[in-house]
Amino acid sequence: MHRYRCLEPSCHQTFKSTHGQTNHYRTFHVNSNRNQQPVLEGPQPRGPQDPDFSPEHDASPAPAMDEDELVSLSARKTFHPGLNGVPCDEFGTSIDPRTPPLPRTMPENDNWAPYSDEIQFRTAEFLYRRVEMSATNIDYLFDLWGRSMAAHHDDSLAPFSSYDDMYQVIDATRHGDAPWKCFTTTYDGDVNSNDPSWKSAEYEVWHRDPDVVLANMLDNPDFDGQFDYAPYLRRDKNGQRTWSDFMSGNFAWKHANTILEENEDNCGAMYCPIILGSDKTTVSVATGHVEYHPLYISIGNVFNSVRRAHRNAVVPVGFLAIPKNDRKYDDDISLRKFKRQLYHASLSAILRPLLPAMSVPVVRRCPDGHFRRVIYDLGAYIADYPEQTLLAGIVQGWCPKDTAFSNNLDGPGGRRTRELTEHLMSTWSPLHLWNVFGIDDDVIPFTYDFPRADIYEILSPDILHQLIKGTFKDHLVEWVSTYLVMEYGEAKGKSILDDIDRRIAAVPAFPQLRRFPHGRRFKQWTGDDSKALMKVYLCAIAGHVPNQMVRCISVFMDACYIARREDFTEASINELENAIRQFHEHREIFRSTGVRSGFSLPRQHALSHYPSHILQFGAPNGLCSSITESLLEDVRMGEGERRATSRREPRGS
């Protein structure tokens, strides 16, 4: 059987498939940090300016850099010379990077305290968490257990004497290194007896200490070899700049420079960008007036492949309270304002323990076993588009990234920044801000409480909701259906749609090609469904719609597939820009046929920001809500812990 050799000439590893060959090469050669940490002696140079490539559309072009200022470590990577993650001891004193790390202490695996043994723990875990048995049934079970023991003249006892005995032991259980905590909040305005109930209700926000969660994440040895200890520039064999993981982007390099400018004593620390994510998935309905939406946390140091692989690189850190209300209050301005303020205040409160380490480094153990001085920074926020407007304090229908008018999102507009918003809010009236700039001045984004954080900068485009579900499924597929009905009448149009479904169902079985036995007519669409449909949709509609309509969807798919790549070069970014331009040209067919009167659609407009996003943060597939959506089962388990904790911990304040 033919085997494939590693693409690195000095490596003699062989593989059964090109997939294994490529994965090994990217992990251990292109992206590997092993044996690449510099040995630095004496005073270190200040960080250079941003990397030297930036397309014309980038709102903040990076000045050219002097290559002599960089510490070249390999033919492929050049690490930041200031925030380069120099190893230290547990007290923060720098050590020789060649010093072997101290061995990790392994916890004892036979300590079941406060349970008497493993059987008692397994029984409590099964009854309380897995099947959630009622107290009455638990007592009945233990009574049967005891009778069975007595009938067989067995002197041993049931694991617990009663449900109350079991609950007391559960109450004494320590729930990991990052237990769930709770604080409550209420509406702080005037409340009258005739006001709606949401004004007088208390809202619980559950969370973990993010500092503890991040410390555990940084100390995970599973990430060794797939972890970046410093921002870096990567160039291919032709000297062209390339982008992949988060630390390869301009954002990490630029913020590392800023941190050094703020305090030169930070030199040698490790830059740790924090990645947050949330979505509108309802985890539970509590007491009838509130829902809980999960908040996730990750770090930009791990490779994108690790963040997507369910390897504890993305962890639930909170459950954000979303007030419920009667339908008659849906348009209540004061309620909408309170929801936004509650959202941002909760985020700020949850992240507050990280604030000191955003200015002064803290010592943390890293995946390779070495200690390092770590400085935190807010790096990116993953959110679907409606939530992005909520996060940015922007009116829905406007873009949270630029100032183009809501009725012409692809028209002229500058980049939104925190400084610009502060200037506008101090200059214009609330009505003018709302109508002309799309700014809701009642909402102050949570990023205002943290250094170097700009909500408009850190919001991440979302491939899943903006491109796959949004532009493809909700827009293009629906527009084709609308066109067929408008052009041929309802009866013949539906007949053609049935033929399209038959074509989709007739696709033969083929590896990595999903079959749709009933066409595309099913109620519950997922992101994977939309991805699979994209592979067969063009051949299904060809001949039924104008060629320009087929071409429009084809070039959009080109853009979508380019955006989903693992690695980017200057050439592939230019390809993406060209595909976006052609998509904007060819989608005019939907206007000329009367399907659309305009294209000022936030999800489609977001595609125009992808090239600059790649420059800043690397490949978009490392910052996509598909990562957080795939963790829903873990979130439900985490909420089980939270609900269990709620009967043992008093509410915070």
What composes the largest sheet? 10 strands, mixed
Report the radius of gyration as a whole number of Å. Answer: 28 Å
Number of helices: 22
Estimated helix fraction: 25-40%
* Secondary structure: number of strands: 17
| Alpha-beta content class | alpha+beta
Give the low-pLDDT segments: 32-75, 638-653
Strand residue content: 5-15%
Report the span from N to C terminus.
66 Å
Oligomer: single chain
Summarize model confidence as the mean pLDDT.
83
Note the overall shape: globular
Task: Characterize the structure shown.
GO terms for molecular function: zinc ion binding. By secondary structure, the chain is an alpha+beta fold. Among the domains are: 1-30; 118-171, no CATH class; 394-442, no CATH class; 464-622, no CATH class. Helix content is 39%, strand content 12%. It contains 22 helices and 17 strands. It has helices at 18-30, 118-130, 135-151, 163-171, 210-218, 250-262, 304-307, 333-351, 385-392, 418-427, 430-437, 455-458, 463-505, 527-534, 537-541, 547-563, 570-586, 588-592, 602-606, 610-617, 625-629, 632-646; strands at 4-5, 14-15, 71-72, 77-79, 87-88, 181-186, 202-207, 232-235, 241-243, 270-278, 284-285, 290-299, 315-323, 362-365, 371-382, 459-460, 568-569. The strands form 3 sheets. Strands 5, 6, 7, 10, 11, 12, 13, 14, 15 and 16 form a 10-stranded mixed sheet that branches. Strands 3-4-8-9-17 form a 5-stranded antiparallel sheet. Helix 13 (463-505) packs across helix 16 (547-563). The chain is globular, with a radius of gyration of 28 Å. 38% of the residues are buried. Mean pLDDT is 83; it is low at 32-75 and 638-653.
